[in-house]
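Case study.
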Amino acid sequence: MGLFTEAFLTSLVLGAVVAGIPLLLAGLGEQLSEKAGVLNIGLEGMMLIGAYMGFLIAYVSGSTTLGFAFGALGGMAVAAIMALLCVRLGLNQIVIGIALTLGAEGITALLHNIQFSRTYPRLDAMDTLPIPLLSGIPVIGPAVFDRPVIVYIAILLVFVMIYVFRATHLGSALQAAGDKPAALDAAGVDVICTRTVAVLCTGLFAGLGGAFMSIVGAGVFVPFMTHGNGFIGIVLAMLARGKPLWVLGGALLFGACLSMTTALQVAGVDIPTDVIQMLPFAMVMLVLILAGRRASLPLALGSSYVRGAR
Amino acid sequence: MVGSSASPVAAQGPVVSLRQVTKRFPGVVANDHVTIDLWPGEVHVLLGENGAGKSTLVGMLSGLQKPDEGEILIDGSAIDIASPRQALDLGIGTVFQHSMLVPSLTLVDNFTLGGPWWKRPDREGVAARMREQASSIGIRIDPYALAGSLSLGEQQQVEIVRALMRGSRCLILDEATAMLTPRDAEQLGELMRRLVARGLAVVFITHKLNEALAYGDRISVLRLGKNAGAMEPQVLKSADTSAAMAEVVRMMFGTNAFGEAESGAREMRAVGGRPVLAVDGLAVDDGSVPLSGISFTVAAGEILGLAGIDGNGQKQLAEALAGQRPIRSGSLKLKGVSLEKAGVGERRSHGLRYVTDDRLGEGTVGTFPVSTNLLLKQIGDRPFWKSGVEQPAAIADNARRYVGEFDVRTPSIETPVAKLSGGNIQKVLLARELSGAAEAVIFAKPTYGLDVQNIRSSRRRIREAAEAGRAVLLISTDLEEILELADRIAVMSQGRIVGTVDNDADARRKIGELMSGMTV
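After joint prediction, the assembly is written out as follows.
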C-alpha cells in the first residue's frame, strides 16, 4: 500500500483538477451547442486559439485576468465563424468544424514560431485563493480549495448551466432548437439566433478552457498544446446526455487519467509515459463501449434549420 | 347544434379569406389562383388528393411560406403574413399532421417557449391556465407530462389547447386524422364540433371523404392546385350522404371514381393449377412476433390474400419470403426449387418479387433518379452495366419504357424519386418488381397511404399480374381490398396462419371469426 501516500493522492487529485478544468469547460460548451442542435467539431480549434490568445495577452499585459478575457474572446471569434457558416448559411457542421480545428492549429503554430520560438517565455504560477476551512482538509484541501479563482468559476459554471437548463426560458429554447427547431420557430423564437448564441457561448467556454491550459496548466504556449482535449470534450458532452453534473464527473475522471503520469512519477512507479499518455483515450473508448449505446443526442443535431423546408 | 351555432356568427363575414392566391415551386404550381373563405362557427373541410396543394395552402396561412401572387385578407383587410409568429398574433393557429411539440420538454415548458431568455417560466400559472382551457373544451391534460410520452391524438389535443390559449380565432387542422386511431379520430371530430360551437373558424384538411361529410359544415375541393368546387353549408345539410359523397368524388377526380370499384367486384375464378409458390412449416425468429408453422401454396394466376390485424407477423413473413430475414426452419419452394437459404438477389433471379410497403425506406433510394431506382435490384447487370461501367443509354431506354408503361408522373427520368408523390413512387416500385421474369409476387400493403386514384391503379396492376399467370401473395390490413382481389384468403394471427378460406359470399364472416380467435 506504499503507493497511496498522501503526497501521491494529493498530486493525483490536483492533477485531476488541473487537467479536468479545461475538459470541463470544453464539455460544458459542447453540451450547450449540442443541446441547441449544433455539433461543434471545431471545439479543439476554439480551445487552441483560446490557449494562444490567453497566453499572449497574459504575457504582454502581465495580467492573467486580461489573459483569460482574451482567451475567451479568441474562442468566441472562432465560434463566430462557425455560427456564420454553419448556423446562418447552413453549411455542413462536421466539415466546417474540422476546417476550423486545422486552421487554428496552423495559425497558432505559425504565430508562436514567429514570436516566441527563440525566447520561450514562461508565465509565473498564478496566485491561488485558499478558501478558509475547506483548504485545511487533507488531500482535497490543497488540491481543490487552494486553487486560482478560475477553477472556482469553472465549477460554479456547472451550477449556472444546471439553473439555465432547468429553470429559464433559455433552457427550454435551447432544448427545442436541438430537438424540434420547427416548434421553436412556430413559438416565435428565432432558431438561428438561439443557435448562434449557443455556439458563441461554446466558443467562450472553450476559449476559457484553452486559456486555462496555457496560463494555469503549463505556463507556456506550445503549438498543438490542447492535444485532443477538445475532442474528449465532445465525447463528454455526448455521454453526459444534457446533464452538466455528468460533464463535471467525466471531466474529473478523464483529468485523473491525464494526470496519472505525474502522480505515478511522484510515487516512483516506472511505467513508460507513452503508455500512461494513452490512458485517457483508452478510457474514452472504454466508456463509449460501456455507456455510448445509451447516449441520446438531440433529434435535430447536425442538421441546419430552414423554415418551411420539407 | 350545427345550425344554431353557425348562422348568427356567420353573419359577421369571413375571418380569413384567400383571394386568387398562387404559389409556385420549382417545376410545379402548388396553388393556382385559389380563393377560399373561412367563416367563424364553421368546420371548413379542405379536400384533395395527395399533391393537390393542401399543404402549401396551410403553409401560407401559418406563415411558413409566402404567396407569389394574390392576397390573404384577415377580417377583410389584406395582410402579409411574414412569419409563424405573425400568423399566431393574427389569430391563426395551426395543428400540423406531425406534432409540433418538443418531445423532450414537458407540456408546460412547450407552452412557455418563447419567453424572455433570462426569466423563469411561470410554470404554475401556465399549468393552471392549461387545465382550465382544456376542461372548457371537455378534455383533460397533464401539464407536467413529457410531450414525447403522449399519443399522437393526445398531442393534437394539447396543440389545440395551445392554439386556443394564444387566442386563435381560426384553427387549421392539417391532415389531423391521418395518423390517428379510429377512436382518436372520432374524438377529434367531436372536439371540432365543440370548437365551432364557440364561434371559431376551423379548417379541417383531410382526404377521407367520410370524415369530411361527418364533421364538415362546408367543403372546398382542391385539384392540381386549383379550386375544383365547393359545397355550401345549406347544400351540404340538405343532401343525403351518398349523394354528397358522389358529388365530392366528382369534384376531386372529375369522374365517379367509385363506380369502378363496384364493377370491379371479383367473380370466382377457376384457379387451381400447379403451385408456384409453396411454403411449408416456415419458422422465423423475431423479438416481437416470431413466426412458426407457416404453410401455404399459391398457384399460377392465383391471388392469395393474407388478412390480419397489423402487427401479427405480416411484415416478418414478407421479409422472410423476400430473403431479407433469415428463416430458422421450414421450406420455401418456387416452382419446385428450394430457396430458403438463397439470398435476396438469387430469389429475385428465380422470379420471386417483393413490393414493399416501406416505399422510400427499403423500396427506393430517394436521392437516386427514377431511372436508377427502376434498376435498383439489377445494378451491375447487363445490358445496363458493362464490366462495371454504367451504360446511360440503356438505362434511360429502360426508364422511358417503364415510365410510359406504368404511367409514372415524373418531370423527367432523372428526377430524384423522393420528389415524386407516394402514388408515383409506388408505380416505380411496381414497374421494377412486375417486369421481367416474375413468377411470384408478394405485395405488402400495396395501397397504404395512397389516394383513391392510385389505389385503383395499384389494384388493377395486382389483378393484371395474376391474370398474366403469376402467383400473387397479397398482404393487406385492408379487408375490403382483400375481399375485392383475392381468390383465397389466409388469416394471420400472432405469427401463425390460423385458417384459410375461399373468397365466397360467406368469406367476410369467416375471416372475422378467424381474426377474433374462433375456429371455422
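Observations recorded in class. Residues 2-101+169-256 of chain B form a domain with the Rossmann fold fold (CATH 3.40.50.300). The two ends of chain B are 46 Å apart (CA to CA). We will return to this complex in the next lecture.
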